[in-house]
Amino acid sequence: MISLKGCHFPKDAVLYAVFFYLRYTVSYRDLEEIMAERGVQVDHATLNRWVVKYSPMIAVNAQSKKRPTLSSWRMDETYVRVRGKWMYLYRAVDKAGNTLDFMLSERRNRPAAASFFAKALSSNGIPEKIVIDKSGANAAGIREVNKILNRFGCTTKIQTVRSKYLNNLIEQDHRFIKRRIRHMCGFKSFRSASATLDGIEVANMIRKQQFPNTTTSGFRLFAEIAG
């Protein structure tokens, strides 16, 4: 459960503001006006602090509450501009298009790929295969993970499949994330970018109905995930 100790606003108001920003194409100043129309006077800078502070916590909860995913993965990375520099958002979905995991990295190399795979395995289990593009770094990352699994006595070996065609699924899935961040003014720090992207990914998971309770509204489900 996420604690809002020290926050001088009702929990529902905070979570509503965070969800609304993550899910819809609004700026912090737009959101400030929207909240004011609902009787909540809050500065746009405070709204930004809420998103950066609570989004990563909600993303952790989302991993433990989402439905089980399939064992055939599609993995790819896309570009995100932070402080005027391109950084890399590693993402993976299963063959049904369900989000598995995500990680922002300053580099696109073997250690970054291995870190992402280790993160994804910890929250989703060991897949039978991972489909990637022609990236040598991603293939090397899977080999490193297989070596680690072997050292721990795991006989399961993750199969690597290189296929641009099969990987179209994850490339198409990037669109929701890219569409949301396109209208932002740009990320000023790695921490802010990583936290905000965590939250946008959760909003995308809700949109894709990856949680057991699909009858409630998007916001109410977001609040349930927050706890």
Automatic annotation (TrEMBL):
Can you supply a Gene Ontology BP term from the record? transposition
Function in brief: Involved in the transposition of the insertion sequence.
Sorted keywords for this record are: DNA recombination, DNA-binding, Transposition
**Molecular function as annotated in GO:** DNA binding
Residues covered by the Integrase catalytic domain: 64-224
User: What NCBIfam families would the database entry show?
Assistant: transpos_IS6 (NF033587)
Q: What is this protein called?
A: Putative transposase
Q: Which InterPro entries match?
A: DDE_dom, Integrase_cat-core, IS_Transposase, RNaseH-like_sf, RNaseH_sf, Transpos_IS6
SUPFAM superfamilies under this entry? Ribonuclease H-like
Q: What is the lineage of its organism?
A: Bacteria, Pseudomonadati, Pseudomonadota, Alphaproteobacteria, Rhodobacterales
Taxonomy, superkingdom: Bacteria
What is the species of this protein?
Ruegeria faecimaris
What Pfam families does the entry give? Answer: DDE_Tnp_IS240 (PF13610)
